[in-house]
Design a protein that fits this description.
With 242 residues, this protein is of the alpha/beta class. The chain folds into two domains: 2-121, 2-Layer Sandwich (Alpha-Beta Plaits); 136-229, no CATH class. Helices cover 25% and strands 18% of the residues. The strands form two sheets. The chain has a four-stranded antiparallel beta sheet, with helices on both faces. It has a three-stranded parallel beta sheet with strand order 5-7-6, with helices on one face. The longest helix has 14 residues, at 62-75. The relative contact order is 0.14. Residues 1-16 and 43-57 have low confidence and may be disordered.
């Protein structure tokens, strides 16, 4: 996925368009990268060695093309898309595997092939489109845990969770109404209690309000929190959530 993301986000890469098969039949596809030595393209008269755009242009080296052709022949693969990643000096290729072959078996053989830098399945991901919280797309754990499906059954209503940590920002907009009790077993500094970062972050992962256009989504956004301060920060922070 890192390779694919890098390819998609770099505007000056050549031939980075994916074939329709990539979107239609991802279960039969694999992504392979091979070494692609840098070959500078001849610059125009009066230009610098880096060109006017601030980077050097590169093509796919003959050695990379030869390696890709050999892999396709040796493993009976069909190339459906390809593009170079110049910064990493590799060439990315999406191959379709034969219908009578196991994708896992092909990948296992490829990762032990010395010509191959990387081999992995074409991955598909479901996004948590039901939430309007701005950072939900960064919460990959919610996808791994199928939290969106679980929320359709329960969001933790009627459950209380004790967080034994540092203090918690009781006025944090993503925890509004979630903390029903708080106790400080460290000191009498109630002001610092509400500025502690770690306990606030833990509380957010557990119980951040969903669909409030704020921050993240909690794993159980309807639970109530009992905040128990038994730990403390070595240095005081001006704000737990600024």
């Amino acid at each position: 996925m890192l390779v694919l993301t890098g390819c998609a986000s770099t505007a000056h890469l050549q031939a980075a368009h994916l074939a329709p098969e990539v979107r239609e039949h991802p279960e039969r596809l694999i992504l392979v990268t091979v070494a692609n030595p840098s070959i500078p393209v001849d610059s125009r008269a009066g230009s610098t060695t880096h060109g006017y755009a601030g980077f050097t242009n590169y093509n796919v080296a003959d050695s990379a093309r030869t390696t890709v052709a050999a892999l396709a022949r040796d493993y009976e693969l069909e190339q459906v898309s390809a593009w170079p990643i110049m910064q990493l000096h590799v060439h990315c290729v999406v191959f379709a595997i034969p219908e009578d072959r196991s994708r896992a078996e092909v990948i296992e053989r490829l990762i032990h092939d010395r010509r191959v830098k990387l081999a992995e399945p074409m991955r598909t991901y479901d996004t948590l489109g039901a939430y309007n919280d701005p950072y939900v797309e960064l919460q990959h754990g919610l996808v791994d845990l199928d939290v969106a499906d679980a929320h359709a059954i329960s969001q933790g209503e009627g459950i209380r969770v004790a967080i034994i940590d540092t203090g918690i920002a009781l006025d944090h907009p993503d925890l509004k109404g979630r903390v029903v009790a708080a106790k400080n077993f460290v000191d009498g500094d109630d002001a610092q209690f509400t500025h502690d970062r770690h306990g606030t972050q833990v509380a957010g992962v557990i119980a951040a309000i969903a669909n409030n256009h704020e921050g993240i989504v909690g794993v159980a956004p309807a639970v109530k929190i009992i905040a128990i301060k038994a730990c403390w920060q070595l240095q005081r922070a001006p704000s737990a959530w600024s």
